Amino acid sequence: MSSPSIDIELDSLQNAVSMALEYAKSLGTSGAEVAISKQQGLSVSTRMKEVETVEFNKDGALGITLFRDGCKGSSSTSDLSPEAIKQAVKAADGIARFTSADPYNGLADEALMATSFPELDLYHPEDISPEELARISILAEEAALNTDPRVQTSDGASANAHTSIKVYGNSHGFLHGSCSSRYSLSCVAIGEIDGGMQRDYDYTVARKYSELLAPDLIGTKAAEKTAGRLGARKIATTELPILFSPEIATGLMGHLVGAISGGSIYRKSSFLLDAVGKQVFPDWFNIDEQPHLVGALASSAYDSEGVATQERKIIDNGHLATYLLTSYSAKKLGLTNTGHAGGIYNWTLSSTGQTFDQLVKEMGTGLIITEVMGQGVNGVTGDYSRGAAGFYVENGVILYPVEEITIAGNLKDMYRNIVAVASDRDLRSSIRTGGILMDKMKIAGS
């Protein structure tokens, strides 16, 4: 979807990128890349059904990186006038002349540049007023405060509407721009019983404003999650199966992203060194990357270096199929660039077919983990130790909430010992997964 005004702005930004590239070429550089991003957004936060803040932002900048025989220089400017762009190019060139050469610096290979640009349906602009965002925030809070008598306080709600325009070009002749939109609503509820307090939240996010979940659903869910945590207790130190909720399972897979990123591999700071082709997960486990899903939150036709994205297996029947490589890390490792400059694209985990509720029953006795805390993950060794909260389950039935525990293991063992992945996936991030049931983990409690 586009409009005449957006098309005009895209043309203007592409002209600015072309100007910068032409000027860089006239200076005799061996290569250059230029990116412009412009964002516009409106955010409204409320607390206890009163508007607390209204924020409007509109910013953008042009960034240029150029190369001189392995030497690299970068600069940026928010002024897109021809003279300011020339000054930014000169500044980058001046830096390049005084930096040390690195043989792995440079643009991504020309043959890898994207040449087709599928319609991904990422841009749905809406003229949304602060009053409208305040309205849905307050509706979410009202629902939260009317759900359970033990939940009488809101820690706030926030509604956001953002659009962005990005243009990227390089001296291979690649030049392309795209637009995207993102809307979100969140609500945090606070509950109290017998002097003990708990908080929890829920949120919704979408490319289209009309596809956000209803405010009352978000508020109600936040309050229900909060109420469910009231009366939490510790448990004795033990070993039990663990069922990670979808939100926490997403983070668990996020550690995989870091471990197989090219930078971690060439620095030898990953617990998955030399793991391509080796079994890392159970035989039935797969992760498919799908960068061209229409309307998804992490879809893109190319990465931040212009390299075409493509569907690929990340985990293939339990085996690691690839590292995630940018042009620099690929050259450093002597491997092929995989188009992952800037992130990952819609990882979808395979499922064993059960819903989350069915996995609770299948687990029998164990813990559902709904929150983790702290930074106790060692990316070099894979050691995992984090504070956690959730629910104790016995005979497939949730008995009571649990807090102030620590769960521990090693990611290598944890990944291999995944028992099941639920079919009801959380689609609110770049990693699309249901809950993950893990074989026994160590639990430190009272």
From TrEMBL:
Keywords: Hydrolase, Metalloprotease, Protease. It comes from the Bacteria. Residues 123-229 form the Metalloprotease TldD/E central domain. GO terms for molecular function: metallopeptidase activity. Residues 238-445 form the Metalloprotease TldD/E C-terminal domain. Coiled coil: none annotated. The keyword Lyase does not apply. Its EC number is 3.4.24.-. Residues 32-93 form the Metalloprotease TldD/E N-terminal domain. It is an enzyme of class 3 (hydrolase). Belongs to the peptidase U62 family. PANTHER family: METALLOPROTEASE PMBA. This is Metalloprotease PmbA. It comes from Shewanella youngdeokensis.
